[in-house]
Specification:
Elements: H1 3-13, E1 17-22, E2 25-31, H2 33-52, E3 58-60, H3 71-74, H4 76-85, E4 92-96, E5 100-102, E6 121-131, H5 136-153, E7 161-163, E8 167-168, E9 174-182, E10 185-196, H6 205-210, E11 213-215, E12 218-220, E13 223-230, H7 231-242, E14 243-248, E15 251-256, E16 267-270, H8 276-295, E17 300-301, H9 311-320, E18 325-328, H10 333-336, E19 338-343, E20 349-353, H11 357-366
Parallel strand pairs: 3-4, 16-17, 16-18
Antiparallel strand pairs: 1-2, 4-6, 5-6, 6-13, 7-9, 8-9, 9-10, 10-13, 11-12, 14-15, 18-19, 19-20
């Protein structure tokens, strides 16, 4: 059974996503509650890398125009604002993480597994760098490395990501791709282009003048470097990348191993089957601890199944949801306050007092 055939039923059962097929084409991905959280975390990390932590000023915008390809016209107003904020001086950049786009080609894409990576409708993640002309080539090389590092940082298998050779078209535009290796072959997950001033070629002279920017006392057209992926591609990459069947006792267990920054839920609770009174006390304790974690900004799943199902069954549900940590409560927790913090990676439990749980988990998920 192929990787996607194993993953898609789990994705539907555990509310990640399912592909919606219209006229034999995957029209879009329909996300469930877990998938929405995963996408939100992917978008947040993309924005942190491409906007928040950049040296230059990066401004967000949304291309709400029907003509998806006409980026330079949709950037006109944001560009004027950026020039004002930056005193008309290069460099500065733009990031778009909200535009809902549609594939421009209408050719039949079939319903093969890999087409989940490229549905007809998608949310694009696109970055435009408006560079000083003399520095654009160097930035193009730098940006390739940075984008590959970003994908590898969140991957359970960093070695699957690679850059293609740089291709130059007849107009002098340079293009490279980041690809991920899966069992069916390589999947293109991001495209990076050194556009130079080609974006401005079709503009009227008066419109071109609007994009002139200063470098010292000179006025020049900025050189543009852009990179583009989509939320759907990123979601599918990290689902396929995180899926693993790991040895467990004398059997194997199926898990989604997400990076803790991307995991939809960071922690949940589990407890063995106990009598009704003890089980209820542990449920109340899990609710109290879970609310404290939520108030501290830790995405927490408080499950009603705690102490109602076998411990192994609770672990299986947590592994399918890709939850990095499980706080395992038991009867003695009610007496001495000690619980076991189980890791999805090792299945080992670290003993910790309930009073320190929130601060310790915050520390664990804070670091990359």
């Amino acid at each position: 059974m192929s990787l996607l055939n194993r993953i898609l039923p789990m994705c539907k059962a555990y509310a990640y996503m399912e592909p919606i097929i219209i006229n034999s084409t995957i029209d879009h991905l329909k996300y469930g509650a877990t998938g929405e959280l995963l996408c939100q975390n992917i978008r947040n990390e993309w924005l942190y890398s491409n906007v928040t932590s950049r040296d230059e000023s990066v401004f967000q915008f949304c291309n709400a125009q029907e003509k998806y390809n006409n980026d330079i016209l949709s950037l006109k107003d944001p560009f004027m604002n950026a020039k004002q904020f930056c005193n008309n001086q290069l460099p500065f950049s733009f990031a778009d993480s909200r535009s809902i786009c549609e594939q421009s080609d209408s050719k039949d894409s079939g319903i093969e597994d890999r087409k989940c990576f490229s549905p007809k409708k998608f949310s694009r993640l696109k970055y435009f760098a408006f560079c000083i002309p003399e520095e654009s080539q160097q930035f193009f090389y730098h940006w390739q490395r940075q984008r590959k590092i970003w994908w590898r940082k969140f991957s359970a298998n960093p070695g699957r990501f690679s850059l293609t050779e740089i291709l130059t078209d007849d107009n002098g535009q340079e293009t490279t791709e980041i690809r991920a290796e899966f069992e069916w072959g390589q999947e293109t997950i991001e495209t990076i282009r050194n556009v130079n001033t080609k974006m401005f070629d079709n503009l009227e002279p008066a419109e071109q003048e609007m994009f002139l920017s200063k470098i010292g006392k000179r006025k020049v057209l900025p050189h543009v470097v852009e990179s583009e992926t989509s939320l759907e591609k990123a979601c599918m990459v990290f689902l396929c990348d995180g899926y693993a069947e790991l040895p467990y006792h004398n059997d194997r267990r199926t898990v989604f191993r997400f990076h803790r920054k991307l995991a939809p839920y960071k922690i949940t609770f589990a407890a063995p089957l106990l009598n009704a009174k003890k089980a209820d006390e542990l449920r109340q304790l899990s609710i109290y601890l879970g609310l404290n974690l939520k108030k501290s900004g830790v995405s927490t799943l408080i499950s009603p199944n705690i102490a109602k199902k076998s411990l192994e069954s609770q672990f299986t549900d947590s592994d399918y949801l890709g939850i990095p940590y499980i706080a395992v409560l038991n009867e003695s927790t009610l007496e001495d306050g000690i619980l076991g913090l189980r890791s999805i990676e090792t299945t080992l439990e670290e003993k910790i007092h309930v009073a320190k749980l929130t601060s310790y988990v915050e520390l664990l998920i804070k670091n990359y």
